[in-house]
Amino acid sequence: MDYLWSPWRYQYVTQAAAPQGCIFCVKKQEQDDERNLVLYRGLNNFVLLNLFPYTTGHLMIAPYAHVGQLAEADDATWTEMTALTRKAEQALQRAYTPDGINLGMNLGKSAGAGIADHIHMHVLPRWYADSNFISVIGETRVLPEALADTYRKLKPLF
Length: 158
Fold this sequence. Notes:
Radius of gyration: 16 Å
Order of helices and strands: HHHEEEHEEHH
CATH class: Alpha Beta
Oligomer: single chain
Strand content: 15-25%
CATH topology: HIT family, subunit A
CATH architecture: 2-Layer Sandwich
Largest sheet: 5 strands, antiparallel
């Protein structure tokens, strides 16, 4: 049996074990952007790193308004979210030079939303062969960069 040690992940796992309300609403109110991994604050949305990324550079764009469906977001929020998605794509291209970018929203629990009552756009870089046996068979993700390093790399690009 092989073991993959990543003790730095313990703090992320234990933080996620007991969420206190909507994580997006909590992070929008707190002012410690670096600790909360908030990369940018717009008028209607903010950009933050995913605490449990699929790949290095996985970020999200969430509105300040606590809405669970696209139809509940006003036009200004949706327009800014779209513009920030474009900005996120450019930032990830510049910082990581990926082979592709995944964009997506999961609306509702049955669609796979981890936080179903607050819409958010996922933006993540992808590379050829970034899914291998350890992700597929071992159900384990190996991330080569700490979230603090990702934050420092992307923050100036917003």
